[in-house]
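ASSEMBLY PREDICTION REQUEST
Request ID: AP-0331
Submitted by: J.K., bench scientist
Number of chains: two
Total residues: 625
Priority: normal
Notes: Please return the full assembly, not individual chains.
Input sequences:
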Amino acid sequence: MGVLVLAAMAGYLAASVALLLRARKLGLGLFAAGFVLAAGAVVLRWREVGHVPMQNLFEVFLVMGCLVFPVSVFCRRVLGVGGEAADAAVAFLVLFPAAFVLNPNPQQLPPALQSALFVPHVAAYLLGYVILAKAGVQAACGLVRVPGAADGGAVSCERATYRMVSLGFPLLTLGLVLGAVWGKLAWGDYWNWDPKELWSLASWLIYLGYLHFRGLVGSRYRRAGFAIVFCGAAAMVVTLLWVNLARIFAGLHSYA
Amino acid sequence: MVRGVRRIAMGAVLAAIFLLAALSVVGAFLGAERAKALFNSVPLAVFWFLVAGLLLAGFIFFRNLIRSPGLLAMHLGPLLVLAGAMYGSDAGHEVAARLLGERRIPFGYMVLYEEQSSDVIFDPKTGRPIGLLPFEVRLDDFRVEYYGPWLLGIEPPTIPGHPMDHSVIRVVDWKVGEEVVLPNTGVRVRVLQYLPNAEPVCEDDGTLAGAEPGPTGCPPAMEVLLAWRGREQRAWLVVPEGEPYVSISMGPLFGVPEGREGRFAPRLYLLEPEGPVKDYVSDVTVLADGEEAARKAVEVNHPLHFGGYHFCQHDYDHDQKRYTVLAVRSDQGLRMVYAGFILLVGGVCARFWGQPVWRQLTGRSERGS
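STATUS: Completed
Returned structure:
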């Protein structure tokens, strides 16, 4: 499985370079190959642990590294949002901790995670994170005014950012609500003021604020909109990484 | 003027959203206890009412929120969640007690010993009793289930003049059908069968004859064949209900007279595993007016719901497994919160997923999308 992860990373990195050099067919082919390898690693892990591999950070990053390609394809074909070179680079970065940093030792599911809501809650968040990470990249490109940041896509950075947030925000909402319902069943209350819950709420509120801001000003003040989305992406990174790894945030969600 | 009021309202909404985001980050650094105290403090209570007021004002000044089903749902949802959360809070319970005469305990713990019933709720911080339920809960059985199988171990015979020391039990790896040599004895043991959930089978005179497969929750049993210097001993290790181990003497194998095995013959043990816990289950019965009103195997993620309370598996006696601890929480306001959740998720999905698809199908496009 380690070989598969490294090979997937190599595929993603090569894809990113090829796409930056405008070798589109080669780049997309390498991107797809990386996805197949990452998906193979996920399947192998699933068989090894006997449950859907989303329990600890290693598995979470493995699954996210697998989701980037299908999200990229969907965004290009359905939303007209490009940026595959950046997507492949993000996929490489997402798999990096899984390959070199995080503990890959399989664990049994503790009683709290044995729930029908485990997969929908985590899956909604992982898919939402991948989509909103792409929104964050679009926003970052808009902030630094990268020429051709839409990378041949049909829409501008501002519209691309809005479309990505519109796609990912319902998933964040679903993840938040499912987590609350699950918390009620597992711990007795739908909100426990856990650091992970509060950071998740903060992330959700930042995107909520962006949507209201855009509703108020439309596509004017683009840089402010980009900055808000970028802050949302930063909050997501904190929610995913820092909260799980830093001891100052010990709480009910300490499963990493 | 209306336009100006709308702008002010929208500005206030944006300020409230980003302020709440900032407070959430502050709360994350404070930790759960202090965050709860912060968000339930008087200034934040005023803030919550302000947020509710802004949501209501939105319905008045922004007609779209009422005309569009998605927008209506995703704004009504948080209002219901807020109202339900306020009603279900400690302060909400006090208000309900004064105004409606409904006196419920917002939150606490129950400690239940096997085959005993209780109606006492304890404060989670002080451990003192804070109230009584209008019914009793009886713990019929408590068990812990592990991922791995039970352990096979050998305890050597005691040295004359020294007391038995159970800490010297040595565990051996085993597999059904395979032969293992027990350390320090030369005894070969073959596990003939292992029943993870077993019921004992007894002779007519009550002596143990063996075991047969039982329902989930029963303790395990193992049939073994011991061999040493041409002698064989076939035996069953059947764990009694609620016990962490069972042992048999290998005295017959060594030809040790009955009654003197403790000093000269080793013992074979079937021990409870020490690995990851798979589940812990409390079989409880609710007694209302002395009669059984409900039964439930309470596990994590499978709480008991009765009398306006949820009883969740919280903790247990880790040493001897004699008692269980259930978290008890009042359901006041919960239905409102869940209704709000449904509206919020439905509204958001309808607005951001459903509406673009609908516009695509009908050939209309949204400005700025």
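REVIEWER COMMENTS: The helical segments of chain A are 2-20, 24-49, 57-79, 84-100, 118-144, 157-187, 195-217, 222-245.
SIGN-OFF: pending second reviewer
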